[in-house]
Specification:
alpha+beta, four-stranded mixed beta sheet, six-stranded antiparallel beta sheet, 208 residues
């Protein structure tokens, strides 16, 4: 299953591919294709997105997207904001990927941990996948999440949640999966390179 979700707003030269864990052949094929943008293979696990229904039926599935933006799930997400040249390059990349996969025998489904279970507690942060200066930098905020409610802003860099040090966005996603309802945890971050801490009582579930 190929899910092309949110591939029209590339403002940085990177493309994220989720679901590569759902078949052992997917990572090497995905990385074998040349492109003039960076391709991130998210090998942490399967996210709770549109393609998860196929994964649950033991069908290998991939999801492509270029990151969240300020118009996410808003009526302001208009066609004039699409980066058509970048989207055309992404579609060509996916066309080559599909062709290469079609040359292989039937893909071997691989079961993997599904992240972001319905019972998980989430900060409601959309992070930048290409941020490499230590921590996880916020690219956007869910209107239903703890982060927005407690005053976090786009550009803030999350450094620690409770006892979990956040060195990359992968650490952030792992740390979120350890948060339990009714935990009260300090979240250490920096804004404009100035460190700060906010104490958050995770007293109910927010949708992702």
């Amino acid at each position: 299953m190929i899910n092309m979700d949110m591939i029209g707003r590339m403002d940085r030269q990177w493309l994220t591919v989720e679901g590569v864990v759902s078949a052992p052949e997917l990572v090497p094929v995905t990385k074998s294709i040349g492109a003039d943008f960076t391709v991130f293979c998210d090998s942490l696990g399967m996210q709770r997105s549109d393609y998860i229904s196929f994964y649950n039926k033991k069908i290998p599935a991939l999801q492509f997207f270029t990151g969240f933006h300020d118009d996410y799930h808003k009526p302001t997400d208009d066609a004039d904001k699409i980066n058509y040249r970048a989207e055309a390059k992404i579609l060509e990349y996916i066309r080559i990927l599909v062709y290469k996969l079609d040359q292989l025998p039937k893909l071997r489904f691989q079961e993997y941990k599904v992240w972001q279970k319905e019972s998980a507690v989430h900060l409601g942060i959309y992070h930048e996948y290409n941020y490499k200066k230590g921590g996880a930098r916020i690219h956007g905020l869910s209107e239903y999440g703890y982060a927005l409610k407690y005053g976090f802003k786009k550009g803030d860099v999350i450094l620690q949640i409770g006892d979990s040090t956040i060195a990359t966005w992968k650490d952030l996603e792992k740390a979120e999966n350890w948060i339990k309802k009714n935990d009260t945890l300090p979240v250490v971050f920096k804004r404009n390179n100035i460190p700060d801490t906010i104490i958050i009582p995770f007293n109910h579930y927010y949708p992702k």
